[in-house]
Design a protein that fits this description.
With 217 residues, the protein is α/β, with parallel strands linked by helices. 38% of the residues lie in helices and 14% in strands. It has a domain of 141 residues: 3-Layer(aba) Sandwich (Glutaredoxin), CATH 3.40.30.10. Helix 3 links the parallel strand 2 and strand 3.
Length: 217
Amino acid sequence: MREALRIKWTRLRASGLIALVALTALLLAACGGSTGTTGPVEPPPAAQPTPTTAPAPQQQPRTRNVNLPRDFQISLYRGEDALGGKDPQFSALFARGKPVILNFFAGLCPPCRAEMPDIQSVSAQYKDSVVIFGLDIGPFVGLGSRQDGKALVQELRVTYPTGTTFDRQVVSAYNVFAMPTTVFITPEGKVFRTWSGLLTRAKLVELTEGLLKASGT
């Protein structure tokens, strides 16, 4: 009797184990599992940054008149209203498309003092067609301070635009080898003529007319 019960129990255990194994296999198949050994799971690829358009490089400010021997900042003595600013660039004088006469002077320069009344007269005569500008470079050539230059302009009652600069390289850029020096420049910024030394009124008129002709005005 006991032997019969043992055999029956053994058969039940065996059939139950087989059923358990079958059930486990069925569940793994349904879940897509595998009874084999799996390798390490690869991480998902990192998200690539979306390419963006690089900002366009900023353009460097350009000189208004690229033909000038040198552009420079002016500190005005007189003429702020005519030039539209207290400290303009020299290239701003060409904004109206006129030729420019650049006169280099100094406060303690006797020939400069002698010619300035004639420059004043010619400036009034050609005010509609030419810009005349007086640049004080006294501190660079040992002929007075900027205060001396201002005093000379006031004493002679000069009304055409005048001023100074702190850029000493203008002296070499415009070939100033004597005082005074006057440079005649076309509206495109090209030097038409450079006159070294004292200018009489007649000579200044002659050179101004030549500048206007060369400028096509």
